[in-house]
């Protein structure tokens, strides 16, 4: 069913009750919207649930809208799992006595939604029987989603936008807001002046930089290669067969052995670098020896 057909069907089921059908915005997500008087609230929910053509068997959500002097709009969204269409059912209660019938007997899942709406807007749902605090502490006073509720943070710090009831009158128009971590002009570095003051992009503005600029070596021109040091200035590379030089003082370092002199064998009979290792002559077995004692 289209939203228009859903709204017309609900109005026909509630006759002779004065109900008004319309269609919400949202293009492809538009919903049929039906306004009913508070006395017919529960009957309208029952009719939408039990009608075979509508079959609105799933309660999606329930909340309210503060309309200031006009009262509060209690809004309920129902959905048909089989037919895939929805309905926004709405009723308006006066501000001085905001009371409407509870629909927990029709949809038990509405208990949570009605408790939240009662806590945030101060609307009573007759027949609920358990409208205790849900999100706020028991000692909290007032209803935060009412438009006359004064936010303490708005009183302590002026808000740059439009004023709301109870807000401070300090401050003027909208102040520029910098992203987090971005310093103000003059707190870091220099800021160019606008064109016409001292030339486009000339001179600092807002004080001296907080940190002086570091001196960096000049960069070579494009295509120019830096000069290499002379051959005499380069460190000599060791050639093959040359042993590294020992300490200048002639003493071995801590935990190291002194280098052997030329012509002497290395420690434990090891050959020096560049020498061919030698060993005792190989003994050949005598002819006829069996190797057994």
Account of the protein in words:
With 293 residues, the chain is of the alpha/beta class. 13% of the residues lie in helices and 13% in strands. A five-stranded mixed β-sheet has the order 1-2-5-4-3. A two-stranded parallel ribbon has the order 6-7. A hairpin with a 5-residue loop joins strand 3 and strand 4. The protein is elongated and about 130 Å long. Residues 195-210 and 247-257 have low confidence and may be disordered.
Strand order of the largest sheet: 1-2-5-4-3
Structural class: alpha/beta
Overall strand count: 7
Low-confidence stretches: 195-210, 247-257
Strand content: 5-15%
Average pLDDT level: 76
Number of helices: 4
Rg result: 46 Å
Please outline the major beta sheet: 5 strands, mixed
In whole angstroms, how far apart are the ends? 114 Å
Written as H for each helix and E for each strand, in order along the chain, the element string is: HEEHEEEEHEH
């Amino acid at each position: 069913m289209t939203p228009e057909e859903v709204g017309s069907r609900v109005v026909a089921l509630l006759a002779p009750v004065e109900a008004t059908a319309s269609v919400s915005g949202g293009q492809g997500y538009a919903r049929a919207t039906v306004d009913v008087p508070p006395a017919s609230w529960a009957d309208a929910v029952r009719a939408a649930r039990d009608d075979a053509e509508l079959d609105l068997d799933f309660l999606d959500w329930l909340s309210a809208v503060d309309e200031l002097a006009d009262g509060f709009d209690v809004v309920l969204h129902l959905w048909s799992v089989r037919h895939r269409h929805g309905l926004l059912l709405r009723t308006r209660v006066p501000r001085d006595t905001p009371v409407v019938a509870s629909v927990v007997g029709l949809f038990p899942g509405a208990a949570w939604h009605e408790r939240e709406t009662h806590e945030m807007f101060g609307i009573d749902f007759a027949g609920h029987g358990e409208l205790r605090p849900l999100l706020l502490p028991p000692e909290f006073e007032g209803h935060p989603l009412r438009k006359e509720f004064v936010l303490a943070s708005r009183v302590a710090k002026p808000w740059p936008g439009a004023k709301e009831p109870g807000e401070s009158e300090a401050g003027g128009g909208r102040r520029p807001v910098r992203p987090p971590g971005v310093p103000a002009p003059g707190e870091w570095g220099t800021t160019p002046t606008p064109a016409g003051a001292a030339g486009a992009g000339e001179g600092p503005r807002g004080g001296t930089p907080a940190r002086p600029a570091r001196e960096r070596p000049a960069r070579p021109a494009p295509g120019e290669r830096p000069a290499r040091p002379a051959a005499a200035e380069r460190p000599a590379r060791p050639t093959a067969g040359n042993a590294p030089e020992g300490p200048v003082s002639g003493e071995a370092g801590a935990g190291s052995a002194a280098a052997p002199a030329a012509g002497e064998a290395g420690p434990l009979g090891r050959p020096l670098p560049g020498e061919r290792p030698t060993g005792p002559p190989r003994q050949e077995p005598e002819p006829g020896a069996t190797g057994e004692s």
